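Collaborator request, handled under Task 6.
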Amino acid sequence: MGVKSNIINILFISILIDFLEFTIILPLLPKILTYYGSETDSNHDTLYKKTMSFVQFIQDLTGAPNDAKWNSVLFGGIIGSLFSLLQFFSSTLCGIASDRYGRKPVLLISMIGISLSYGLWCISFNLTIFMIARIVSGLSKANVAITLAIVSDTTTETERNRAMAWIGAAFSLGFIFGPLLGALCSQLGVMYWSSSSVSFFIVPACVSLVLSLINIGFIYRCCPETLPISKRNGRKTTINDVFNAIIPWRLFQFSAIHKTKSNHDILILRRLGLASFAYMIVFAGLEFTITFLVYNRFNWNSMQQGKMFFIMGLCMALVQGGYVRRIPHGKEITAAITVRKTLVYCTTE
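Structure tokens returned to the collaborator:
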């Protein structure tokens, strides 16, 4: 149990660092997109013009008002959707690769890609470079999926709930301090390099890069390989296997899973997959669009948005670390139903 506990602690620290670096950008996104849109038409790069043309198309299609505030929300939605789409492909494919080649090497490759994206963000003086950085980040953001696979490798069914709760608490702590750190770094950049128009995001980008490099070194030195060669997937990967992993309707059927105790297990996985999908649609939409809401409607600056995320993350950490990890094995569904009823009651009263 000592070795397992040590691995969980390593993953906790790694996920905490990862979410710190990942959420640094959240309170800065509206201002970053405003910066790219503040140039004169002659200075806008080609990608900006094409993206704005697509935004106009969406406006015409949905009947949204042609307003600068709405434009920034749609613009941000496009960037967020692109990142998530690429992460969807990278997570599934890297998961297959880690089953075949081991968790640690694939995890390190993913983290190196994340560092590269932050390096590009440091020099993103126009929208094209910024979008390339987001594309690289989306394609590399498979480390969370591999981390969860490592948890599955190193825990039993009775231990897994508590271990997953600790990983969830690490997400929440990153969500607490990452946006605040981003806002603070942005203010420091403006304070000490006021003559530069890009200092408000260059300093946070550099901090994200440094944190990602620290995380790579930490995992390389401290995290062992948890999938022995004897347990790796030795069967040859076919095109059909790849399609099963990346085509959404096949993914929801869990066609890529070949070893289960019974057909009932597959049915449970399908239900859990749909429930997780529905939850992530709501959470991801909130996480990405709320910054534009408070920026446009309340004129909140980066620090005010950072404080908002601090409160949200604190609530998440209390739930994950204080409640979820104490749920007895086998009582997870009952606990989820209780929480759902409580939320419905609170929102309708």
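The cover message to the collaborator said: "The longest helix spans residues 157-192. The chain is about 80% helix and 0% strand. Please let us know whether this matches your experimental observations."
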